[in-house]
Amino acid sequence: MAKKPKKAKASGSKKARRGTKQAKGGAAKGKSSKAKQQSRKKTAKGGKAAGKGTGRSTVKGKEKRPSKGSGKGSGKIKKEEGRVGEKRKAELEEQTTKKGKSLSGKQQRKKEITKLYGELINPGRTLKADVLVKDILEALSKRSSTLAEYCSTNLGAHVIEACLKWGTRNQRQDLLSRCSSDLIKMAQDRYGHQVVLKLLLYSSKTSAQRKPTDEEKKAQSKNLREILDKFSGKNLHATFFHRYGCRVINGLYYSTTVKASDKRRLLHSIAIPQAVALRRPELPSSKTLREVLQAEDLTEQQRTAIAQHLQEAVEKAIEKELLGLDIVHLLLQAFCEVATDSQLTQLAEQCMDGAAYLLSSKAGAEALLRLLGIANAKQRKALCRDLKGKFAALAKNAVDYVVMIRLATTVDDTVMLSKSMVAEWVQDMEDLCFDKYGHKVLAWIFQPGDPHLFSPYEQKCASLPSPSSLKEPEARRQELVRMLKPSIRAVFLQKPLEAAGDNSAKDLLAAFLASDWDQELILAIVAAAEAEATKENLGLLNSGTVTTTMLILLKLEPEKGPKLAQPLWEKCLKPQMVVAATSRCAFLLLAMLKRDPIKEPILAALRGKKSQIERSAQDAEVQGAKMKGARQLLEVI
Known about the structure:
It comes from Durusdinium trenchii. By secondary structure, the protein is mainly alpha-helical. The chain has 40 helices and 2 strands.
C-alpha cells in the first residue's frame, strides 16, 4: 500500500499567522518564547521603577513582595524600629531628621528623654547619675500629662524605674510625692504597677555600707506609711482582686521593710469579714490568720461566716486568675483548713487546672495537700501532666517534697506514675538518695510514717484524709516499691559506706533494709568497711555518722538470715582491735557484746588486749581526746 503523502505546509508559518493577529489589533498572546521573555523583562523594569518609593514591584498589575534588601527609605526604618530598643529609636529618628524631615514637639521631647535614659542606664556614662536624673525630671515637668499617665507607658515606666534606682534620696522623695495621689490608679496599670513596687523598694532603701541615721529612718517610715495608707478599705479590695494590683499587694506583704502588724492588717482585711473582726477582743492584726481561725473562743456562727467569706474571696481570686501569687495561697490555705469535703470538692473543680502554681509557696503546697485528697483521678492525672519534667526537682525542694509524698500515697494509677514521676526519679536516683529532702520521699515509700525518720509535720501532711483514693494503701505502696527498689539498690551497692556516712542517705538505707534485709547489700557494706579499716584511724569507720548507721542496722538485723555483726567483727574490728576500742567503734563493740552468739569471742579478745587498750586511751586523753566509749568498754571487760 502506497504511503500517504505528507500534508503541505501552509504558505504562512505560525510566526506569520501570529504577526497577522497582532496587526489586527490582537493582544500579544501569540509571541514566541523569546519575545515573551523580552516582554517580561521590560514589564519587570517598569514595575520596579514604578514601585521604587514604596519598596514593592508590580508585574502585570499584581503586587509582588520585595526581594531581600530591596526596601528603602521609611519602610526600612519602620522595619528596624520593630526590633530595636528606645536608644536605637532615637538614633534612627536623628538620621531621619538629617535627611530633611522635622520632628514634632512631642517627638522632640520623647527623643530628648530617651537619649537621657539611654545615657543613664549606660555603665560607661560620662555624666553623674544624679545629674542625668535631674535633667530627666526637668524634661518630664514640661509635659502636659501627669507623671502617673506617663508611667502607664512602657517607656515611661522604664524611665521612672531608672530614676528611682540611680537617683538621690531627695529625687526619690520628689517622685513619691508626685505619684502619691495616683498610687491606686498606677497599681492597677500594666506598666504602672511595676513603678509602685519600685517606689516601695527605693523609698525605704539606704546604702548597705553604712547605718542609716535617725533622720533617714524617720523618712523611711514616713514614706512607707504614705504608701500603705493608700491601700486600705475599698481601695485595698479593688486593688487585691485586680490582675496587676494583686502583684502590688503581694509585694507589700512580702516586703522586708513592712512591719508584721501591717502585713497582717492587709491580709485580715481581705480574709476576715468586718462583722467578725469588730467583735474580736484582741487588737486588729495582733494575731496571725491561722491563730485567729484556731481560736477557741470563736463561735460557730463566726466560724461559718469566716469560711463563707474565705470561699467567696478564693473563688473571686481564681476567677481573676491570681493563683500565681503567694498572698492568694495564704487565703487558699486558710480556706482548705476550715472547708468541708463538699466545699473542697467544689474548690478542686475550680482550681486544679492551675494547681501547679500552688507549688511556689509553702502555703500553696499545704493547700494542695488537702486538695489532692479530694481530687478525682482525672484531676490528679492532669496535675501529673503539668508537672512533667519537674518531679525530681520538686522531690528535692524544701517545700514541695511533702507534695511528692502525698502524690505517691493518693494516686491510684501507679502505671501512670511509673511512666511520669517514678521514671524521672530513676534518672536522678543518686542525687535523690543523698539529698536532704529527696531521700525522705523515697524513705516514706519503704517505711511510711516511721517516727524515727519523719517529723510530726511530715507525718501529718502525708496522712491527711483522702476519701477519693480507692486503691488499698499497702497495695499501692508495694507497687511503688517494686518500681523503685532496683535503682535504689544499685546506688547503695555502688556506694555502701558513703551512704552510711551521709546524714540523708543513711535514713533511706535504714528504711530500705528494714523493708528488705538484702544479703548482697550487707556483704557490700562489710566489704567497704573492711577496706576502710586498713586506712589510718579506721577511715570512715571512725565517723560518728557511720557509727550511728551501723548501730541502727545492728538493731534491724533479723534473727534468721544473713548477719551483719559477726562479719563486721571478724573482718573489720578484730584485726584493728586496739584502734577500734579507742575510737567511735567502741560503741559498736558495746552493742555487739549484747548479742549472745558473738559475745564470748569478743570479750575474750578484748580481755587479751585490755592493757594495750587502757594505755592507748590514757595517751589519747592526755592529748585532749574524749574516751567515753573506751572507758565504758573497759568497765565491761
